[in-house]
Amino acid sequence: MAKDKKHKKNKHKEKAKDKSGPTMAETADRHLMYQAAVQAADVEVEFLDKIFREIRGRQPLSFKEDFCGTALLSVEWCKSDPKRTAIGVDIDEPTLKWGGEHNLQPAGSDVASRVTLLQKDVREVLEPKVDITCAFNFSFCIFKTRGSLREYFTKARAGLKDDGMLVLDIFGGTECMDTLEEETELEDVSGTYVWEHAKFNPITNEILCHIHFEFPDKSRMEKAFTYDWRLWSVPELKELLEEAGYSKVRVYWEQFEETDDDDDYLESNGEFLEATEVENQESWHAYIVAEK
After folding, report:
1. 184 pairs with which residues across the strands?
2. How far apart are CA 31 and CA 125, in angstroms?
3. Percent of the chain residues topping a pLDDT of 90
4. 200, 189, 175: which is closest to 284 by C-alpha?
5. CATH number of the domain at 36-172+232-291, please?
6. CA 157 – CA 169 distance, rounded (Å)
7. Nearest to residue 276, comparing CAs of 248, 257, 256?
8. pLDDT value, residue 18
9. Could you report the per-residue pLDDT of 249-259, keeping only the tens digit for each?
10. CB 144 within 8 A of CB 206
């Protein structure tokens, strides 16, 4: 699900183009497409900085990105201030290598010297302690039992400074239990991002999701990414974080507003505000902030 992006299905697609040779889907880089479709690293760094300053009254400098993938967020964190450091942790070596070549090296030697990439299980990295640890893009949903997720939360807390915080994001809404494909036309690259709910089991809350990419030549990168998750609810996350020892858990809810061209369509305005009660929606995205 794209964050801080539009959630409206495309109504118009370009006609197929006659061409010889490989298709656009065959030559496209799935990681570049993912970053364009799903990630808004500058916006997320701004959000993390803002909430930490508001809650803790100081500037956050040290950062750990669990399930970091291509480490785009870690690089953006260090680009935002010359005093900042980041640790990116992921178990997948090829993805980390791609991030080093395409995100870390192009950022320059100063930024690169302040980013450490580790191919490890996120539960194994407890030092050095940091101001903020994040697990974004719903990555922690790979833990499907209360015990395994509570263990991760406990380990993440152990890796925080005394006034540190863990920040998660989560999605939900009435349509999450439906099988669907949601399309978003991309602005920075040529193509369409397709988010699919392929399967949902209401007994276990397990959800199978795919990301596909479609291109102007009518080719499609099928199942560029696949996610086999448990879709956790906000109260479950709050309870598990409290059981893991966090002193306070806050929820920041995405804000929507009507657009001029379609009164029935709400679009994110990019703001997330702390909330304790909201109206349910077909699709929503929220941040969970847990204070050590």
Report:
1. 193
2. 25
3. 83
4. 175
5. 3.40.50.150
6. 16
7. 248
8. 52
9. 999 998 877 76
10. yes
